[in-house]
Amino acid sequence: MSIIRATDIYKTYTETTVPVHALNGVTMEISEGEFTAIVGPSGCGKTTLLNILGGLDHPTSGEVEIANTDITSMSDNALIDFRLKNIGFVFQAYNLIPVLTAIENVEFILLLQKAEKKLREQRSMELLSQMGIADKAHQRPSELSGGQQQRVAVARALASNPKFILADEPTANLDSSSTSNLLDIMAKMNHETHTTFVFSTHDQRVIRKAKRVITLEDGRIVSDQMA
Amino acid sequence: MMIFRIAWRNVWRSRGRSLVVMGSIVLGIWALIIGTGFMNGFMVSYMADVINHDISNIQIHNPEFKNDYDIKFSIPDGLNKAKELASWEGVRGATARSLVRGMISSAKKASGIEIRGIDPETEARVTRLDSIVVDGRYFKGIRRNPLLLGEKLARELNVRVKSKVVLTFNDGHGEITAAAFRVAGIIKSSSVKMNGGYAFVLRKDLNKLLGLGNVVHEIALVTDPLVDEDQIVKKYHQLYPNDLAETWSEIAPELNFMQEMYGSMLYVLMGIIMTALVFGIINTMLMAVLERIRELGMLMAVGMVRAKVYLMVMVETIFLSLAGAPVGLGIGWLTIKYFRHVGLDLSNYSAALETYGYSSILYPYVETQTYFIVTLGVIITAIIGAMYPSWKAIHLKPVEALHKI
């Protein structure tokens, strides 16, 4: 079943002196349970595509459907709510809340979803255990390594049971051992819980783990291969 | 509440910067409390001096006397009324006076004054005139025609205790009369009139010269603290509708005005201090928001609605502002308590202060409600200070904020 459907997406940035055409007619579908990497050279439009698929940005033209809901015409406020309920995000720079502990960072999403305290605590600890960092639950991000922080970010992304997780270059700031650990965890989550993962990356280690690789060049899909 | 937890912890993220803002808030509140306390102290001491030693809580006159100050218009049966009033509940003392305007002259100078004929014993109960004699004795030591006058007037006339002065005025028949008096004592008060505008003589001496019998032109009453003066006036008017009884605020409306003006000075001071503080708060919070653009973008990206982001920055600002408030209030309270006990000696400026009727020892005073008003002022300041940074925060676009370096 298709969970993401993007049809003829164009994105042009006009704020610059010369208009920049970041996406030029991207059409793609991602089904439930996929482990997909979007790859390509810098500036090819990976992040722009991820932002549009995640409802963080609007396309100049084209249509994006997430679980059969057209998000292209949604207002900013409606999109915030939609993202909270349907999409998990993992960012390159982890972007945890520095004043909260690891478990509080995970709980935060559940709190936004108005989950009860007991459920929040239980689910957050369960996710941190799955990420192998339960012992770091009460430490703040500044006390964790990059790999550990990114695992907290994945736990946070998974906390709300999203329809899919978008990860923008999640391993870019990690060393090889942390990258390997993180990929193993995400692959395990994908395998065990059928969570859909969509990455943007140019890290070969991530590409090798992906089940499907979509290659972008100059804002167009130039190849779409299943592993 | 996670938002409150985040907001509170964010306050301490940049400890040094937050402490600077808190320090300025502490200082601002302290200055506000102290400023208000000293202004109140000036006002209370001035008003207490004027009411206690000069005009008293309530005065009674013949209405015609108030209109043109003609000594023929006395209070009928004034002495008995004064005695009766002294026994009323809530009245601590009552005294009868005969009054006339005239001239006092010494070998050096003559000056226009009000001559007040008093009964020393009852007068002392009402105005505590005996307590402010700084030289000589309270109507003692002079056998014939003793007189008390203020320090300033004595200086101008160049007279001292036992010096002779001449009082000149129109008697009850319109004839100019003059009599010699000797200075029995010199008084000192922060009331300008008491210091330079009155001469106190015995009522029997003055009445003899006025030639109108045992007249009373004025009855002055001092009431117990917290007694409603208006109720006593009302009761008196019911009994003696032909007399005019007035409270101190009617007799000296300028005191009422002064009280209101000093009261509003709290708000003026608060406005000035809080305006200065609000810019400090905006500056700090704006820096905090601009430093956290990516974090705020992330919060909105993962699903935090703009209203909550607004609330979070608002709460953080209020925390930042209110964290310093109790310290400022506490230090202000302690300072007031200390100076209320020992007084602030301003005797270096006593000449200037006394010109305006102020005492040279100041006892600051702050009403309890002032602390609440100041706290409310800080909260309002914090809310105003938080508005722009909060507005700035919610107008960030997550996609742009997330990629800010």
Named CATH topology of chain A: Rossmann fold
Biggest β-sheet description of chain A: 6 strands, mixed
* Largest beta-sheet details of chain B: 6 strands, mixed, barrel
Largest interface: A-B, 28 and 22 residues
Q: Count of helical segments of chain B?
A: 16
Number of domains of chain A: 1
Secondary-structure-based class of chain A equals alpha/beta
The tally of beta strands of chain A, per DSSP, is: 10
Q: Tell me the fraction of residues in β-strands of chain B, as a range.
A: 15-25%
Q: How would you name the CATH homologous superfamily of chain A?
A: P-loop containing nucleotide triphosphate hydrolases
Radius of gyration of chain A (Å): 17 Å
For the record, the count of structural domains of chain B works out to: 2
The percent range for strand residues of chain A is 25-35%
- Poorly predicted spans of chain A: none
Record the strand order, biggest sheet of chain B.
2-3-8-5-7-6
- Amino-to-carboxy terminus distance of chain B: 30 Å
E-strand count of chain B: 12
Average pLDDT metric of chain B: 89
Descriptive account of the structure:
The complex is a heterodimer of chains A (227) and B (405). With 227 residues, chain A is an alpha/beta fold. Chain A has one domain: P-loop containing nucleotide triphosphate hydrolases (Rossmann fold), CATH 3.40.50. Chain A has seven helices and ten strands. Chain A has helices spanning 46-53, 76-86, 102-112, 117-130, 146-159, 176-193, 204-209, and strands spanning 2-13, 20-31, 35-39, 61-66, 69-70, 87-90, 164-168, 196-201, 212-217, 220-226. In chain A, strands 6-7-8-3-9-10 form a six-stranded mixed beta sheet, sandwiched between helices. Chain A has a four-stranded antiparallel beta sheet with strand order 2-1-4-5, covered by helices on one side. Chain A is globular. Chain B is built from 16 helices and twelve strands. Chain B has helices spanning 2-11, 15-55, 63-68, 78-86, 120-127, 151-157, 192-196, 203-210, 229-239, 248-251, 253-291, 293-301, 306-342, 350-355, 368-394, 398-401, and strands at residues 58-61, 91-105, 110-118, 133-136, 146-150, 164-170, 176-187, 198-202, 218-223, 244-247, 344-345, 361-362. In chain B, the strands form two sheets. A six-stranded mixed barrel of chain B has the order 2-3-8-5-7-6, surrounded by four helices. Chain B has a two-stranded antiparallel sheet with strand order 11-12. Chain B starts with a helix and ends with a helix. The mean pLDDT of chain B is 89. Chains A and B meet through helix 2 and helix 3 of A and helix 1 and helix 12 of B.
